[in-house]
């Protein structure tokens, strides 16, 4: 039996929509196609989640936006699956054209120490205990592998890609508080294959790359993305005197992140301030107009440079061994 309930074909700038059964208490709404990653589709998913929050449907309990999906939980004693789908169809008709979508979006600035000792320790443990011949481990780090895989001339060019763009939190998932960030500037696009097999330990605050997504680890955990730096804690399970938020998770879906480079010594001091309750995170409330992204991508100079960088990256990948 197919899990697909029904589909709606793309129209008027809106993506194709597939409705799937997700148990007896949820509907999974998929937008567009699997590949490639499309920020326009992600914006639509966020707009759908926001619309349901602002215009609640009786019986719908919670919505969770994904990269190109929306998971809708409902109470079957209050509303049937068919009525949930009908309400979602009506909602999609109410969402404006992509160029008219404006989303709540905070701006956060985080420090990052590249090639830090904690990330190196995680890479070294992996090399010793799991895979001594891992091609993504070069001189005790993943950074030089990332440089080669993306066809970049040196580390500084890689760091520049990280620092020069705003990173959009496309979704939070895999486990609570893990943001998956995509660059809003297509020229900053970078790609990486995952570890094979996965890493047994990743330090809290580690910044890593897998596929097109950059992630920040909120807790110590396993992991399979390529490590290249560390930032401040982004989860706060024990409230502190100067807590910067009510929610224990710092980065919310739709937030925009920028990084500033610091030395590891500077980062250690900033992390100490966080743990002592003396640090104020730089958070600016705001909104994001999708038209800004569409305008950037439509600029011939931006599009041309992004395509040249993509071609260079694809050529480089042919010469680099995948884990």
Walk me through this protein's architecture.
With 323 residues, the chain is an alpha+beta fold. The protein folds into 2 domains: 4-97, Gyrase A, domain 2; 107-317, Cyclophilin (Beta Barrel), CATH 2.40.100. The protein contains 8 helices and 17 strands. The protein has helices spanning 39-54, 81-94, 117-129, 143-149, 155-163, 264-275, 290-298, 300-317; strands at 4-8, 17-21, 26-31, 60-65, 69-74, 102-104, 107-114, 167-172, 179-183, 199-202, 206-210, 213-216, 221-223, 226-230, 256-261, 282-284, 287-289. The two termini are 36 Å apart. The relative contact order is 0.15. Keywords: ATP-binding, Hydrolase, Nucleotide-binding. This is Carboxyltransferase domain-containing protein. Residues 17-251 form the Carboxyltransferase domain.
Output the keywords:
323 residues, alpha+beta, Gyrase A, domain 2, Cyclophilin, 2 domains, 7-stranded mixed β-barrel, 5-stranded antiparallel β-sheet, 8 helices, 17 strands, globular, PxpB
List the helices and strands and how they pair.
Elements: E1 4-8, E2 17-21, E3 26-31, H1 39-54, E4 60-65, E5 69-74, H2 81-94, E6 102-104, E7 107-114, H3 117-129, H4 143-149, H5 155-163, E8 167-172, E9 179-183, E10 199-202, E11 206-210, E12 213-216, E13 221-223, E14 226-230, E15 256-261, H6 264-275, E16 282-284, E17 287-289, H7 290-298, H8 300-317
Parallel strand pairs: 7-15
Antiparallel strand pairs: 1-2, 2-3, 3-5, 4-5, 6-17, 7-14, 7-16, 8-9, 8-15, 9-12, 10-13, 11-12, 11-14
Domain Carboxyltransferase: 17-251
Organism: Amycolatopsis deserti
Keywords: ATP-binding, Hydrolase, Nucleotide-binding
